[in-house]
Amino acid sequence: MATSRESTVDIAGKRLSYLSAGDEGPPVLLLHGFGADRLTWLLTQRDVASYAATVAIDLPGHGQSDRAIGEGGIAALTDLVAGFLKLRDAGPVHVVGHSLGGAVAIDLAHRHPDLVASLFLLAPAGVGQGIDTGFLSALTEMETLDEASAVLERLVERKRLISPQMTARALAQISEPGAREALRKVAGHLETAHFDMAEAVAGIGKRGLPVTVVWGANDLVNPLAEEAAGALGARLHVVENTGHLPHIESHPEVNALIRAFLAGGDDAAA
After folding, report:
1. What pLDDT, in 10s, does the model give residues 91-144?
2. Which H or E element spans position 200?
3. What superfamily in CATH does domain 4-263 come from?
4. For residues 95 and 213, what is the distance between their CA atoms, to the nearest angstrom?
5. Residue 199 contacts by C-beta under 8 Å, 6 or more apart in sequence?
6. Alpha helices, DSSP H only, in 61-163?
């Protein structure tokens, strides 16, 4: 099992926290979704790090990264991620992005094409119908364990996956100083991301960049948008009996898809 290493770095005066694992193989950057952090990738990173050099970062405003995020737009988050990659002289990398992280990945590939080798996107924001604004509001405003549990249960098809420990951790994170303000800013931009990112999506679709899109068939937060794959020039994999967190809820299947995609195998394009 690859050893993981927690680190922080200063990018443009802002602290960025990340977890790296694996030293050999293709470079893989993992970008989490709205309100999550790098630890959402534990089941993914543990597997991928066995054959690739992985880095999972806390996006600005999330996890242990700086809460001061300016206006909190997708482009601002993307530029900090680009700064991180340039500081590490890490490009081009294979980017695995979920939800908000998928939107950042698309924007990164569009505006910093030299940094991105391929995109593996899970229920990406910025394409399709758009993120459920009610979910965004509920997450940023939850104040009790019952409210937090209800929010987290919307993320999955199999509610039993949401443990009391997960609920308590989510509530503790949103209750940290500056967390709600930061996420409210990001949420405001996510609400219009499917309009704001039309140019980036079209640009990716025309480039011929290797792209795979994975979506849970029962996603209530960012509903399945089959047309999104076509717009991105991507292959679409729909994961049955799965909600908005396919990398957690159906992690064996998703891990196998990532492995095949990075290897350029036929299974990734089926």
Report:
1. 799 999 999 999 999 999 999 999 999 999 999 998 878 899 999 999 999 999
2. helix 198-207
3. Alpha/Beta hydrolase fold, catalytic domain (3.40.50.1820)
4. 12
5. 110
6. 74-87, 100-111, 133-141, 145-153
